[in-house]
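Hi support team,

I submitted a single chain yesterday and got back a structure, but I'm not sure I'm reading the token output correctly. Could someone confirm the output below corresponds to the sequence I sent? I've pasted both exactly as they appear in my results page.

Thanks,
R.
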Amino acid sequence: MSHRLQSLVPGMVAALAISTWGGAAFAQEPTLQEQLAAQYKYAKLGSDTSGYSITEEGTLLAIQKGGILGVPQSDKTVLTTKYEGGQVKAPNSLMVTGRQKLFGHFSQTQSQGQTTHLFAKGEKVYPTNISVSVDKDSVAMNIVACDLCNKTDPPTYNKAQVVFQFPKGSLAKASAGDVEDTIGQLLAISDDSGDQGNQQQGQDQGQGQAQGGGQGQGQGQGGGGGDQQGGGQPQTIQMGMTMDQVQQAMGTPLKIVNLGPKQIYVYKDLKVTFIGGRVADVQ
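Hi R., thanks for writing in. Yes, this is the structure output for that exact sequence:
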């Protein structure tokens, strides 16, 4: 009887190990909300006797289509603009008027000619929050103006909410890349290095704390990674690959963005996103 029990132990241990590994893998699978929040770093605002200010910059976004309706940061409410089927649908005048009557604080900004602000194409903004509603097939992003980028003086830190409406039943099946592509039609991640100087500095500091001297080494060898990408034999990246495996396949990235649980390897022609140290998305 004892001998039989001993013979069963290895199988039981193996089954337990497989079960535990499978549960851990399942637990590490990031939700759509988590993936989007990792892709779009939130800006943080603060206020004192001198007014509002951005205390921490987020991912810089460039507006691709005009029509988003916002209000100054001092207002206690926020206007919602819908983006659906490639069209920007700002709140109508009846809705704005109703909010003005409902919230008395609008009268102060109205007298200053700052009741609402219609964001124009090319203006730069930061995300301050993202929420996903799979049941409603919508993704809502709150934004705030980058007044320094837009050369707004005096600053207003105009804010707005954009709701990205997806076809019924599609959001549950959509990948983070699909959602980011739709968001990018209206709010594209800015590649203007001049406007992102301060933002990049903050990212570099975060990388320095997490990786020590790794960033400098990565930048110095960035050309090598690009050359390897351009080689005659195509390289393969698969979901779940580790960071070391990606570097072996693609070479050293041109840039590494460290956002805590999420890291992004930026190569010449693509971005590889890691969640928990494994590939979660490739763009």
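A quick pointer for reading it: The chain has two domains: 33-189, 209-282. Let us know if anything else looks off.

Best,
Support desk
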